[in-house]
Amino acid sequence: MVMKQSELYRLLQQVAAQQVSVEEAALVLKKAPFEKLDCAQIDTHRRLRQGVPEVIFGEGKTAAQIISITEVLQKDGSVLITRLSEEKAAALQAHFPITYNAEGHIALVGTFPAPKGNIVICTGGTSDIPVAEEAAFTAKALGNRVTTLYDVGVAGLHRLLSHLDEIMSARVIIAIAGMEGALASVVAGLADCPVIAVPTSVGYGASFGGLSALLSMLNSCASGVSVVNIDNGFGAAYQASMINAAFPSSY
Amino acid sequence: MVMKQSELYRLLQQVAAQQVSVEEAALVLKKAPFEKLDCAQIDTHRRLRQGVPEVIFGEGKTAAQIISITEVLQKDGSVLITRLSEEKAAALQAHFPITYNAEGHIALVGTFPAPKGNIVICTGGTSDIPVAEEAAFTAKALGNRVTTLYDVGVAGLHRLLSHLDEIMSARVIIAIAGMEGALASVVAGLADCPVIAVPTSVGYGASFGGLSALLSMLNSCASGVSVVNIDNGFGAAYQASMINAAFPSSY
Amino acid sequence: MVMKQSELYRLLQQVAAQQVSVEEAALVLKKAPFEKLDCAQIDTHRRLRQGVPEVIFGEGKTAAQIISITEVLQKDGSVLITRLSEEKAAALQAHFPITYNAEGHIALVGTFPAPKGNIVICTGGTSDIPVAEEAAFTAKALGNRVTTLYDVGVAGLHRLLSHLDEIMSARVIIAIAGMEGALASVVAGLADCPVIAVPTSVGYGASFGGLSALLSMLNSCASGVSVVNIDNGFGAAYQASMINAAFPSSY
Amino acid sequence: MVMKQSELYRLLQQVAAQQVSVEEAALVLKKAPFEKLDCAQIDTHRRLRQGVPEVIFGEGKTAAQIISITEVLQKDGSVLITRLSEEKAAALQAHFPITYNAEGHIALVGTFPAPKGNIVICTGGTSDIPVAEEAAFTAKALGNRVTTLYDVGVAGLHRLLSHLDEIMSARVIIAIAGMEGALASVVAGLADCPVIAVPTSVGYGASFGGLSALLSMLNSCASGVSVVNIDNGFGAAYQASMINAAFPSSY
Amino acid sequence: MVMKQSELYRLLQQVAAQQVSVEEAALVLKKAPFEKLDCAQIDTHRRLRQGVPEVIFGEGKTAAQIISITEVLQKDGSVLITRLSEEKAAALQAHFPITYNAEGHIALVGTFPAPKGNIVICTGGTSDIPVAEEAAFTAKALGNRVTTLYDVGVAGLHRLLSHLDEIMSARVIIAIAGMEGALASVVAGLADCPVIAVPTSVGYGASFGGLSALLSMLNSCASGVSVVNIDNGFGAAYQASMINAAFPSSY
Amino acid sequence: MVMKQSELYRLLQQVAAQQVSVEEAALVLKKAPFEKLDCAQIDTHRRLRQGVPEVIFGEGKTAAQIISITEVLQKDGSVLITRLSEEKAAALQAHFPITYNAEGHIALVGTFPAPKGNIVICTGGTSDIPVAEEAAFTAKALGNRVTTLYDVGVAGLHRLLSHLDEIMSARVIIAIAGMEGALASVVAGLADCPVIAVPTSVGYGASFGGLSALLSMLNSCASGVSVVNIDNGFGAAYQASMINAAFPSSY
Amino acid sequence: MVMKQSELYRLLQQVAAQQVSVEEAALVLKKAPFEKLDCAQIDTHRRLRQGVPEVIFGEGKTAAQIISITEVLQKDGSVLITRLSEEKAAALQAHFPITYNAEGHIALVGTFPAPKGNIVICTGGTSDIPVAEEAAFTAKALGNRVTTLYDVGVAGLHRLLSHLDEIMSARVIIAIAGMEGALASVVAGLADCPVIAVPTSVGYGASFGGLSALLSMLNSCASGVSVVNIDNGFGAAYQASMINAAFPSSY
Amino acid sequence: MVMKQSELYRLLQQVAAQQVSVEEAALVLKKAPFEKLDCAQIDTHRRLRQGVPEVIFGEGKTAAQIISITEVLQKDGSVLITRLSEEKAAALQAHFPITYNAEGHIALVGTFPAPKGNIVICTGGTSDIPVAEEAAFTAKALGNRVTTLYDVGVAGLHRLLSHLDEIMSARVIIAIAGMEGALASVVAGLADCPVIAVPTSVGYGASFGGLSALLSMLNSCASGVSVVNIDNGFGAAYQASMINAAFPSSY
What we know:
8 copies of one chain form a homooctamer. The first copy, chain A, has about 250 residues and is α/β, with parallel strands linked by helices.
């Protein structure tokens, strides 16, 4: 168990008061390696600095479980709930004022922070939009401004090229595509910023549930691309938010 | 065993001469289903119509084996030898006047036919060129004019777009790429003709010997793309040649 | 953003009227690389030349979404809708006069063009027919005459051989098979034209959802075979239509 | 199209009657390679010799389709229908007198032939029994005597060893197992006859739908083992029946 | 440790002589379950009945190791050594009179038995011949007559069909093919006997070291096909020999 | 068939009584190799020594089947039933007094033995708990004391480190995790005892049903880790129980 | 072909001089969609802004090829050459003053820019160091300060924890690991910045050339992780450099 | 950086001497969470208790690197070096007195401890012996007595059954096998102790480098089996040693 701050104080006071010998105190501090970690400090520190909401992965949890976890967490700030079905969202709504995005299956308990900077989110097709909505909602909940460019896949290159301005001036781009996943390479070849690629499970046959797009994105011949798990819009937005936060406010 | 033409003649003459009854002759002809196939006819027919050279797959054959097969085949026309190492090519050169392409590891014994039509062959990177050379050499040996656009991969889209003219006016395109294989989709999105995609084993790590490019091309979101085996430049050129041959000469 | 045609005219008129200097105009035209693309032109051009209908991939879209997209697209011509369930087809029928193929799950809003040339579509078994129907319907919607040879798989070779005439005289063949996918090789060995192979997800156990047939077709030892995605009857027909269109009308 | 027997007769009669010259007749017979196949002959021949019933793969066919196919086929003998659900079996029963095995999902329209020889069918566990029942029913429908040894997997070796007699004196053994598929190797190490191994999709996790058992069986370190597709009890029984038929009756 | 025959005799003699009580003897026999197996008996029994040679898998063993094992085994009959490189074969030749097949990398120490029956071995291409030679040599060493049909792959169907006689009258066929592995299905569709399919590692790209042919053969739509490991010519011949042996001699 | 104990006695008595000659008795004992195994002895022996309950794998068995098997087995002790749905558990409850764990889908008919020693079971996330409950229940049914540390995954390392005491003093640990499965390595790096890792199918996308965690655990860079099948909580507990039993009671 | 700047000027001058009508000029500009892209501008623009060196992928290129490419590129700045063997590096050294890192197989022609910010690069084991050196060298060549923490894998957690300071205060971290790849999750759980994970091909058996680590990292349960291709130290450093560049200089 | 023990003492002494206030000391101790871990203590503790030698993974390290690491480590006890080629072993021998096992590619610098308990190591074939030797050598270096049963694979079950005594009385068994890996299940079915299974990369074709054996072992239908990485003899022995150490000495 973690040594509490008060216990540490008391121990040191006893040393100062000669009630505990140096050897005994050293023994206590040494005996349990790792135990002295004031672990909670880490998380608290992070939340304070970033205003990051707590996150609940809703899949596989009952509405009742999500409600009781949310009750605990929302005392310290807003709570983001991913992979939340419409049914569970409805159940949640009876307990908290929530903002729910049905397409992205994602909800926020609490208020959105003021948006800063800009994250560009583009998709190859319309079927990739649910993943993009998860990403966009997450990014907004983490305090980012978001620009969405949907259905700009490489089979109709002109649609993508008509948004060159947004792409070439972005700070960070999330490129979401299923099937052959070529969007990430093309976007990264045009852009001058980190591109986070999200393969989606959209497709059939030899797309093998997103494997095709995943491999394609990992093998991107363009520099500046990294990849997250299949359909992981949340993860892409989380990292994109970290990158966006690095920019000075006046940029 | 296949009934020889002379045997068929003799049998029919015996029927005409009443030396063999109709029933007996029918029995002979019926007895062995399939046997009456004058099989050689098929191949001959094809060669006559197309002037297609015979093809030898050189890999796994010794120089001596290739020489003796070539000796037989070249009596009836030119012979194309694929996957031919430089050493074996040198051994061959002592016996026949050959044209050898070292990069594509491919040789022709005989003369190139006059080029007709046009096949556009483009590659994603410079490492894909050996496969492209196999394709280009094959296409020329089969009587096609060839335009090559090398190193026009999607990470530097401007290089590809600077060749829009060739792409948009092509009859058939061979798109060759390793890594993420996105070239096929982008080219097919721009072109208005069949695109035959060739994944290459170029790459490392999660390219898994060409699997990444293969899956990517099979999942192309652009219409008009079909795919051949990894590194199969010959196969792509063979089908492209068939397509090019379909066009009327004055086109 | 794409420069509109009217803007380009106005700019040039201002140059002609000396209201804008050459330098200023050049700057405008140069400043935003890529921006001057009159993108819509490409698609329009293609449709005009080919009479190709617009295509909607119906899977994953609601009936309402399909209806509203169709409303927009059908103004400029016919609309082909693939992967359309019977329920959605019924909903569509209330809005447009459609031709629906229940086996192929495919519909056309508009009229079929006059059929030209000929595309041969053969399947290994009866279970592959839904994919073949998708291909046949697509081919007809794109203006091709279609000959179907169903259930001519290699386990009963005589069934296939009894159709030698159709196979040996075809312009382009679509070979559709699941399980071991051997049909493509056998057909390509007999035929003298491009063969587009479609692996299907028919089978069980080690067919792994079509992977077995896919690999088999990619490794075809016959020349002239290329492959599309598992169950992609539409894609095969689209490319086959391009090839068929290459032939002179009188052929 | 296949030349009919009557046409062949007429042609030969015309030759005999000097109404058709030898050259003309030869031309007709030669012109269409392959066409003269009296294909039906093959199947008929096989059925006559073996009394093998026709087989319908029931999966993916409606009850109505199965009934109409059965109507045609049962005129020439019995009909075996595999992968037949209980619902469809009930529908069939209204039209034909059928014997149905619910566990093996398999039915016979017609009567079982007298059993000859002996095929031993053993399974690793009780969950493999449905596949074994498909095999046993098929074997019986093809005229074989069958001995079943169920649940004799290698984790309880004594159960298998208590049947050494049956195993060591068998003519042909079908070894059916999921999970690690070790049964085939152990049985083949004890037996002195061909062992046909059937991997089953029984298991979870890293059994990957039967892949584990399939690979295991293909890599058997015992001689005399060959393998059929996952869950393919029918295929194993079909080949086993061929082997059993090779033995002289008095054996 | 296995109880020796002499020990069993002695124990029973002591029982008969009343020197050991029934209870004591029962205890000895019961105490160690499994231990009483006179295991050697099994193998001896099998060898006597079949005249089967001992087999050494040569790969991964040094010439010295193979020589010393051979020395022991050849006392009881002939010895078959598979996967034996030419270098090791040369080393062996200094110690024993061996018959070596360089293409099949296989040797026999001892004499070939008189050939009985007939096993047909066919290959798709010339590159599959080494595997076929391993099979043919094994089959001969096990006392079978062998007919080889090499390079009769499905891409040139006429070559295969010109051997219909051999195929339709075979007792058992070994079909060996790499790449798409379609040979097995086509042969099994024509033949009326068990077909043992051997996928080979011949090919490149998406053949994945024989996986493509393996899956193709497992999914064969023809009845009567079973499969052994990739390149396992020995295993196929071993099972084929068992099947051939089942036929009565006068057949 | 296995020789019964009474038969062995009778045979030996006949030898002692000179009614059966030594040669005859030896023949009987030798004739059927393997047959003399008193197989049941093994299982009985094991149960007596360990008090291990019989185990039924409930998946794929009907409630009726489970009930009838349980009726037989529970005569000799308690019965553990894994993968038992709530419906089947309810049906069982009507026949036997059972303890059912709904989360772990596992039940015990009979009483739990007194707990000995200690097995630590930790999970990476809350979604892994069902597998952990299967393991915990099994361990208790086998007579082990259990300590559970749930949701101590490596993404929040402080949660894991706050339980250092339990981990560093454990006899054997079961580490259960899905997704990236890193828990096993981290725990094994801290602990000084065998760690049995259980990958779970928890996750999505590139977790491929537990494959990711499985590979991760097999490649653990920490010594002392072994792995069981995906989701196999039962198997891990069974082996852990064996290890725990090795310790002297006073430890 | 791309319209040159001089041609654009001339055209506009002709419009201004009324020598070309507005309509004609518009036609020229419109006729070839895409053609007007002054593509080179993009790359130049990027290099100017970032001072990014040109990059050559050395693998598969001869020393001669690399030298001639380098000669062209180094006129405009420094050149980074990855995957460069020692032999080729030696050949290069005769032509240019290069800095070569033998472990990372990477070289720079030109001078390193002044280092800014900080990128933390950590590896799981010593075998991962070559990939880390490629990353570190790349990062330095792109103008970043680099901190390396080698051999801090999770099996010895204390080594990692002793560097908590560097990890918790980093701007961006590159986590490089083979085998089970758990380092990325643990680091991301501790850090408060983007973590770019690089799986390495280090390992054997079920590491499958880096696949295990790749899947593990993609499934990381920690937020803020993205992944690049196996062994792609360059790609990770390139993206990390982009992120590091986002921070204001005084940070 | 880790706080040294002397620094901790000094700090506490300063508190005791009132030279440092309680607040200041608490700040120092709290400031860097995790930093106070006296990490080395863990490893030391473990070594003291177990007498476990340090381990070096020799693969991918030069002889010089191994020598210098060994020099440091052998001061505190013996050093085990795995995956050590004969060449490197020879180089090592010039510096330290080592015991080298050429087959297992493993060496010990230092002396073997007195052997305790017993670990049974069995292999399926002779080709698995190198992995078994790695395991046996490791086990001995960790202070265990070892019994080896080589070449007792399931294809010759009698060889395995003749060692029933050793198997049924073992404390822990390491079962090593390639190909179909059935040994583990059979052994675990007979034994009454933990079985650690080691798949080996022995085999060809569909063994896929050990994958077949790995899956087979993970799916073992016998209870009490866990699995380590392919060819990981060291890892199996390490865990087996932990289990063996659990037994009381007098057992």
